[in-house]
Amino acid sequence: MNNTVFIDLTYPIEEGMTTFAAPWHPEVSIRQLGRLNIEGRETREVCLGTHTGTHADAPRHFIKDRPTIDQIPLEKLIGKVTIIDFSNLNEDEAITEKMLAQVQISKKMVFKFGWGEYWGNRKFYKGYPYFTNSAAKYLVSKGIELIGLDSPSPDDSRNKLTGNSDSPVHKIFLENGIVLVEYLANLDKVEDYKGWNIIVMPLKIKDGDGAPVRVCVYK
């Protein structure tokens, strides 16, 4: 008997779903084209951005001439993962190098902030815990290759979206080849944090800066 436990960490793609309020993040549109009672089959047109819902950021998202989503090797996206519970952190609390020095570090990391509580609400995009620049550099020094979050970003939500303060932690991670997986769902269902593996499967968009993903952990 197969006793493998799977937890799906993916939000469904649907019209009206939460998207970041910026012109470079379009709202989701799903339109039925084929109908069983007319064309004899169901098909749909789906329009969405590369960073819609649960998705992966490729280095190209912020860093010129770096790998695109279709160039990321599968071994970076599949394997043993360490899940860290930081759901006790306060709003806008910074994750520091000192905090990270007290937890297990592996090549693939998932950070649980309990932020899925706000999914579907504009609050989702404000106040989540974030990484300091030095904490990000510490993870880089440890050879991290994938970081997953149940929040929308590793950066301080109070940063401006343009200029020198725009997404510095994103840039530290991505310029060092780390794949970011954001908007993870259902981490509240993970209570035992040992022995998990992760599978992250992005749409293989040629030259893509990112892509929606199906993500699960299993053991």
Please, could you describe this protein's structure?
There is one protein chain. The radius of gyration is 18 Å and the shape is globular. It has helices at residues 97-100, 133-141, 168-175, and strands at residues 6-8, 29-34, 43-47, 55-57, 78-80, 82-85, 94-95, 108-112, 130-131, 146-149, 179-182, 197-202, 210-218. 10% of the residues lie in helices and 26% in strands. The strands form three sheets. Strands 1, 4, 5, 6, 8, 10, 11, 12 and 13 form a nine-stranded mixed β-sheet that branches. The chain has a two-stranded antiparallel sheet with strand order 2-3. Strands 7-9 form a two-stranded parallel ribbon. The longest helix is centred in the middle third of the chain and has 9 residues, at 133-141. The chain is built from three helices and 13 strands; from the N terminus they run E-E-E-E-E-E-E-H-E-E-H-E-H-E-E-E. It has a single domain (6-218), classed as 3-Layer(bba) Sandwich (Glucose Oxidase, domain 1). With 219 residues, it is mainly beta.
Number of helical segments with 4 or more residues? 3
**What is the level 1 CATH name?**
Alpha Beta
**Terminus-to-terminus distance:** 14 Å
Corresponding CATH superfamily: Putative cyclase
Unreliably modeled segments: none
Q: Strand share of the residues?
A: 25-35%
> Radius of gyration over alpha carbons?
18 Å
Number of strands: 13
Mean pLDDT over all positions: 95
Percent in helix: under 10%
CATH-defined architecture: 3-Layer(bba) Sandwich
What overall geometry do the principal axes of the alpha carbons give?
globular
